[in-house]
Design brief:
Blueprint: H1 2-8, H2 10-33, E1 36-38, H3 40-48, E2 52-55, H4 59-63, E3 71-72, E4 92-96, H5 101-112, E5 117-121, H6 124-130
Parallel strand pairs: 1-5, 2-3, 2-4, 4-5
Amino acid sequence: MFMEFATQNIWLFIALGVIIIMLAYSYFGDQLSGFQSVSPEEATRLYNDGAKLIDVRTEAEYKSGRIGDAQLMPISNFESQLSKFEAFKEKPIVVYCQTGARSAKAAGILSKHGFTQVYNLRGGILAWKTAGLPINQPQNAKKKGSKKKSPIQ
């Protein structure tokens, strides 16, 4: 009886198979890509423990505010500037953008080039703001003073 139902509704079973594959990829895709997506809270812990923050948004987006002491490195020329981060190959790096899509691409590039502790901020800076976490103005807009990295609460 099941086989008869299956043969009569083959498209239904094909659609079910595609949905299962898509769900599995969304769950395991990051691990297959060599990086891990983290929540804003997990990113805060990583940052407070010394992770490097990389903002892959455009300069205009960066000027509207950034997370912590994030360094701007737009996705448009990301791969050509990887040498700037050689010192972080074995250290944690958190990459973010506006929504998490561009930073996922950047995280994949970092992993492909041998960076071992790469994290993508799931939902990007929008998720960060939604979580009520602080946003800083770019360094050149700050008054001259201490260069010490302050922890995020």
